[in-house]
Amino acid sequence: MPTRHELSTRSVTTAAKEQVKHTMGQPMKIAQFLKPEDVISDLAAANKPQLLTVLSRIAAGRLKLDADAISSALMQREALGSTGIGDGTALPHATITGMTAPFALFARLQRPVDFESVDDVPVTLVCLLLMPPERNAEHLSALAAIARRLSSKDCRTQLRNAKSADALYAILAQEAP
Q1: What does the pLDDT look like over 21-77, one tens digit per residue?
Q2: Does the domain formed by 30-173 have CATH 1.10.150.20?
Q3: What is the predicted pLDDT for the residue at 98?
Q4: PTS EIIA type-2 domain location, by residue (predicted)?
Q5: Which of 150, 141, 135, 140 lies closest to 27, judged by CA?
Q6: What is the pLDDT of residue 176?
Q7: Is 93 annotated as catalytic?
Q8: Catalytic residue (one of 5, 22, 93, 139)
């Protein structure tokens, strides 16, 4: 017959396993990788390369990484196919050596930019996502979280009408119904 300690250890182990299952089964939340200070309400860019360069510089400053390395990784990813997902939104993303956690930067543009999107609609909402190379599952989960949020017409309308970066963040971080 198991001792009280063995029973206690088993129940803690079972509880821990259940918690891991529960956590792993949950979709990633935008607030896990996007911080309020990483939201820009009216970013100016004339074209896609300039937009990616500006976003790379901002991200590099926040992450203390090389802006050219980030820009190069983003341009290489874009060469595979546009990350313009339609309805005026884009999700440029790349894996970056030297990172330890996911990082996002969201920008609403002052004027639409041709992003060679799947529907040829110029982009006004952009979410840059950078990830460490060894965290593929997390990368996909973060991409899915932001894509789910931006797939909502209501969300996109709210983002385009928001009055401040704080309001943009609140809309993005809000859990979809």
Answers
A1: 333 456 788 999 999 999 999 999 999 999 999 999 999 999 999 999 999 999 999
A2: no
A3: 87
A4: 32-175
A5: 141
A6: 55
A7: yes
A8: 93
